[in-house]
């Protein structure tokens, strides 16, 4: 089955190079991908949305693929790198979607640069150090060794995607339903495509580990932009209660919970989840989202 491939570009910013790709047309939405991701993962997730009304800016966060580690060794530095990328592309402001381990930098971007952010969406977001199931604890402990070689992960991607989806909280029936939908299964394959080149993500994962271990408590955030938080109750990787507690801190936040589907609930239940996010984005799109004139 075909996996749609992004066409990456490189921008030079103060910390080095940042890799990104653009897809769609309309107001720009930046996707901050999860741990063990990259612009390819963000690009795949963007395919769930209507790209005739939104343009998606998918990036490789610091240390992932061709993005320099020095573009963001902390969440705040990554947020700054997003601003510098917007400047390089001549984009005035964006909404930002923070997914899983991409949430910390999305939070910092929305908090520190509200003039550049017209909306924050958090999906399966890690907002504090998670309590992982034993299997995932083992993976984290061994990840530096496990990510040095790609061939075992290529086998997993080819033959074990259903197993991975179930480990991430989807039921066997939900996995079967996604398999029967060519578009959804190609999105799933794209989301997990990064494991096939795991060695290119090791530096980024190390940076993520440091960030997640030093996350501030929810009370330390000060959000002045519209916020939308969507999370599955049975997410095994990112705490539902943490996400709900975070959303409750901000009167302008909307919280949307889904009972199941796990960490990939937004694919499992895409027909229920994606339209609500699109409605939020449309409701908060600035009247003028034109690109800045380039020098």
* CA-atom Rg in angstroms: 18 Å
Question: How do the SSEs run, as a string of H and E?
Answer: EEEHEHEHEHHHHHHEHEHH
**SSE class:** alpha/beta
**CATH homology-level superfamily:** Alpha/Beta hydrolase fold, catalytic domain
Question: What is the CATH architecture term?
Answer: 3-Layer(aba) Sandwich
What is the averaged pLDDT score?
90
**CATH fold field value:** Rossmann fold
Shape: globular
* Highest-level CATH class: Alpha Beta
Strand order of the largest sheet: 1-2-4-3-5-6-7-8
Q: How many helical elements?
A: 12
Biggest sheet character: 8 strands, mixed
Layout of helices and strands:
Elements: E1 9-13, E2 16-24, E3 28-32, H1 39-46, E4 55-59, H2 75-89, E5 94-99, H3 103-112, E6 117-123, H4 134-146, H5 151-159, H6 161-167, H7 172-179, H8 182-192, H9 202-213, E7 227-232, H10 240-248, E8 253-258, H11 265-268, H12 270-284
Parallel strand pairs: 3-4, 3-5, 5-6, 6-7, 7-8
Antiparallel strand pairs: 1-2, 2-4
């Amino acid at each position: 089955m075909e996996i749609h491939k992004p066409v990456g570009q490189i921008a030079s910013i103060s910390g080095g190079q940042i890799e990104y790709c653009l897809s769609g047309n309309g107001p720009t939405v930046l996707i901050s991908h999860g741990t063990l991701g990259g612009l390819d993962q963000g690009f795949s997730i963007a395919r769930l949305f209507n790209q005739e009304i939104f343009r998606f800016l998918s990036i490789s966060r610091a240390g992932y693929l061709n993005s320099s580690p020095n573009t963001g060794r902390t969440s705040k530095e990554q947020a700054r790198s997003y601003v510098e990328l917007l400047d390089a592309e001549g984009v005035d402001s964006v909404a930002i979607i923070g997914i899983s381990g991409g949430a910390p930098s999305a939070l910092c971007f929305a908090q520190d640069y509200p003039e550049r952010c017209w909306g924050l969406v958090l999906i399966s977001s890690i907002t504090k150090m998670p309590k992982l199931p034993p299997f995932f604890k083992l993976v984290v402990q061994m990840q530096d060794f496990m990510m040095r070689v790609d061939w075992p992960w290529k086998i997993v991607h080819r033959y074990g995607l259903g197993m991975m989806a179930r480990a991430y909280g989807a039921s066997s029936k939900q996995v079967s339903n996604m398999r029967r939908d060519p578009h959804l299964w190609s999105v799933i394959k794209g989301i997990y495509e990064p494991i096939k080149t795991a060695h290119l993500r090791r530096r980024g994962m190390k940076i993520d580990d440091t960030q997640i271990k030093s996350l501030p408590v929810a009370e330390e955030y000060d959000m002045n932009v519209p916020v939308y938080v969507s999370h599955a109750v049975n997410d095994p990787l990112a705490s539902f209660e943490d996400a709900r507690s975070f959303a409750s801190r901000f009167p302008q936040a909307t919280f949307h919970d889904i009972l199941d589907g796990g960490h990939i609930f937004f694919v499992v239940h895409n027909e229920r989840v994606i339209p609500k996010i699109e409605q939020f984005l449309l409701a908060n799109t600035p009247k003028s989202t034109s690109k800045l004139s380039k020098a």
